[in-house]
Amino acid sequence: MTEDACDDCGDAVSDALARTVRLAVDRTQIDSQRLCPDCFAGWIDRYQAEMQPGGMDEPTIDDDDIIVD
Question: Matching Pfam families, A to Z (predicted)?
Answer without folding.
Answer: DUF7569 (PF24453)
